[in-house]
From TrEMBL:
Organism of provenance: Sciurus vulgaris
Organism placement in taxonomy: Eukaryota, Metazoa, Chordata, Craniata, Vertebrata
Gene Ontology cellular component terms for the protein in this record: interstitial matrix
Signal peptide as annotated in the record: 1-26
Protein name from the UniProt record: Vitrin
Keyword annotations of the record: Disulfide bond, Extracellular matrix, Glycoprotein, Neurogenesis, Repeat, Secreted, Signal
Length: 654
């Protein structure tokens, strides 16, 4: 009996196998007859980032115009997934700016991404990112099925083209503290088009709580350095759910966007001088702090953009934090929240002097090439004078902005130590540098116009720090060997240099001395205060003719020109000669150096180069120039200006 049953079971199994093979064969025949649908390439916009698309490998069509710098790209060759897909394609050379189809493949995150300029696109550097991608020509690989619709990480994808059908994984509920896990069974149950040929899809994004920070984590945060996958986890919100895997960086309460490098279109070094006096009160002090926090958020703080520090004043000023303390907006906002009121008087002038002398230094993060901006917030009016302190700040190249809140009423003006103090403090009285706010409740309305003005570096009249804070004395050789025609060429050279500077009573001032055996003051620093007047004065200088006593001319310029230079002004002497001096230049040149006069020696034709190096400030290679003909003088103008600015930016603030 047992043998019969066994034989019957074997027969049943054999029949089942025959039917199975027959069914598979029939299914294959039917598949051959069914015409495969034509593959449709999904289209995306230039601003779509690779990280928003969950598919591990896909072909897309990019539109024209993705070379625009507003579509940020991070890396070279291998790109961080925070990059614009189409921008990266243009940078890599796979596409040009007219658009087209590309193949995108996700790869592992890198420990660093190096920026470069390629094919009209400037990519940025990024220290670390969790996921990368590479771009190639849109040649499908054999055996790989590419999606006709893309799967985005958000159910409402603003990056998708209008009307495009997209798929999205649902986000977990925001209630509770743990994200819903992705179980292995859920992955196995996904359609093949969604899974593609990847082992696992990109994990579900974590929805942070309402208290989560909208800004990225600082570099070096612990969760960036952990392994990609955590141990299996079961959510308390889904009873019976199978264990799944959650990436640790997604469990962070921070956003997964990279740390911002800052807005490169607003590269300024910014100091806020906030009122901590007793008269402002706690409520208004809190409004002031909120205003600062909003400014910090709007500015997009970062090493490639604006940097911001805060000084609080009362009786005495104190730095709350300097330019290099916080390198992103979120850290800055957190620091602002922790500021406590100092109390005391409202000594604004003392605070401005403090900022001029100490704040904008290299040690405090001053970058040299970025404009220095100081924004002074005043409740009512100062208890000391601000005009002289502000003038010294401006002459150090600092752009002063004043925001006066609840200014003195008519019956209170008798208590104001310095009437019209705001107009006296700023470098222009056209309203660009000052705001008068009637009430603290209206302070927030000044935020947008203030940010716009601070970032408009072309309009910052006091921003060209190397060009607006010097007294420049030209010492011009008028000897017989120069000749009338060449002397006019020298004057044109002097005019070309002068044109590069911002000229006014409070900005750069120009003076000139001509010499032969004797010396003559053509015009002093206080004679002309506008650029047109200076250029006309240069044009009117008459050729003298005579010998060449350069040493005596340097001494004369020190006594008649630079002795009348303003305190805190940079003193620049630019000497032009065409021959060796009849007298000794060593002692006068040394005297100039000791008095802090930076001397540039320009030699033409028969000028002695060894003498030029003695006259020039050390190092001579940066301060002495030689041209073989007068007609070539103009060629040295850009280099002289560059050296003046480089030297200025390398010096600590006075």
């Amino acid at each position: 009996m047992g043998i019969v049953v066994l034989t019957m079971k074997a027969s049943v199994i054999e029949m089942f196998l025959v039917l199975l093979v027959t069914g598979i064969h029939s299914n294959k025949e039917m598949t051959k007859k069914i015409k495969r649908p034509k593959f449709t390439v999904p289209q995306i916009n230039c601003d779509v980032k690779a990280g928003k698309i969950i598919n591990p490998e896909f072909i897309v069509k990019c539109p024209a115009g993705c070379q625009d710098p507003k579509y940020h790209v991070y890396g070279t060759g291998v790109y961080a997934s925070y990059s614009s897909v189409c921008g990266a394609a243009v940078h890599s050379g796979v596409l040009d700016n007219s658009g087209g189809k590309i193949l995108v493949r996700k790869v592992a995150g890198q420990s660093g991404y190096k920026g470069s300029f390629s094919n009209g696109v400037q990519s940025l550097s990024l220290p670390r990112w969790r996921e990368s991608f590479i771009v190639s020509e849109s040649k499908p690989q054999k055996g790989v099925t590419y999606p006709s619709t893309l799967t985005y990480s958000s159910s409402k994808s603003p990056d998708a083209k209008a009307g495009e059908t997209t798929k999205a994984y649902p986000r977990p509920s925001a209630s509770g503290t743990t994200a819903q896990p992705v179980t292995l069974m859920q992955v196995l149950a996904m359609p093949a088009a969604e899974v593609n040929h990847a082992t696992l899809p990109k994990p579900f994004p974590f929805v942070a709580s309402a208290t989560s920070s909208p800004r990225p984590q600082p570099l070096g945060h612990r969760s960036w350095e952990m392994d990609l996958w955590t141990t299996p986890h079961t959510s308390s919100n889904s009873p019976g759910a199978k264990p799944g895997f959650i990436p640790k960086e997604e469990l962070s309460t921070q956003s997964s966007e990279p740390v911002s490098l800052g807005d490169p279109n607003c590269k300024v070094d910014l100091s806020f001088l906030i009122d901590g006096s007793s008269g402002i009160g706690k409520r208004r002090f809190q409004i002031q702090k909120q205003f600062l926090a909003d400014i910090a958020q709007t500015l997009d703080i970062g090493p490639a953009g604006p940097l911001m520090g805060v000084v609080q004043y009362g009786d005495n000023p104190a730095t709350q934090f300097n330019l290099k303390t916080h390198m992103n907006s979120q850290d800055l906002k957190t620091a602002i929240e922790k500021i406590t009121q100092r109390g005391g008087l409202s000594n604004v002038g003392r605070a401005i002097s403090f900022v001029t002398k100490t704040f904008f230094s290299k040690a405090n993060g001053n970058r040299g090439g970025a404009p220095n901006v100081a924004i002074v917030l005043v409740d009512g009016w100062p208890t000391d004078k601000v005009e002289e302190a502000s003038r010294l700040a401006r002459e150090s190249g600092i752009n002063i902005f004043f925001i006066t809140v609840e200014a003195a009423a008519e019956n209170e003006k008798q208590h104001v130590m310095e009437p019209s103090f705001a107009n006296k403090a700023v470098c222009r009285t056209n309203g660009f540098y000052s705001f008068n706010v009637p009430s603290w409740l209206g302070l927030s309305k000044t935020m947008q116009p203030l940010v716009k003005r601070v970032c408009d570096t072309d309009r910052l009249a006091c921003s060209k720090t190397c060009l607006n804070s010097a007294d420049i004395g030209f010492v011009i050789d008028g000897s017989s060997s120069v000749g009338t025609g060449n002397f006019r060429t020298v004057l044109q050279f002097v005019a070309n240099l002068s044109k590069e500077f911002e000229i006014s009573d409070t900005d750069t001032r120009i003076g000139a001395v001509q010499y032969t055996y004797e010396q003559r003051l053509e015009f002093g620093f206080d004679k002309y205060s506008t650029k047109p007047d200076i250029l006309n004065a240069i044009k009117r200088v008459g050729y003298w003719s005579g010998g060449t006593s350069t040493g005596a001319a340097i001494h004369y310029a020190l006594e008649q020109l630079f002795k009348k230079s303003k305190p805190n002004k940079r003193k620049l002497m630019i000497l032009i000669t065409d021959g060796r001096s009849y007298d000794d230049v060593r002692i006068p040149a040394m005297a100039a150096h000791q008095k802090g006069v930076i001397t540039y020696a320009i030699g033409v034709a028969w000028a002695a180069q060894d003498e030029l190096e003695i006259i020039a400030t050390h190092p001579a290679r940066d301060h002495s120039f030689f041209v073989d003909e007068f007609d070539n003088l103009y060629k040295s103008v850009p280099k002289i200006i560059q050296n003046i600015c480089t030297e200025f930016n390398a010096q600590p603030r006075n």
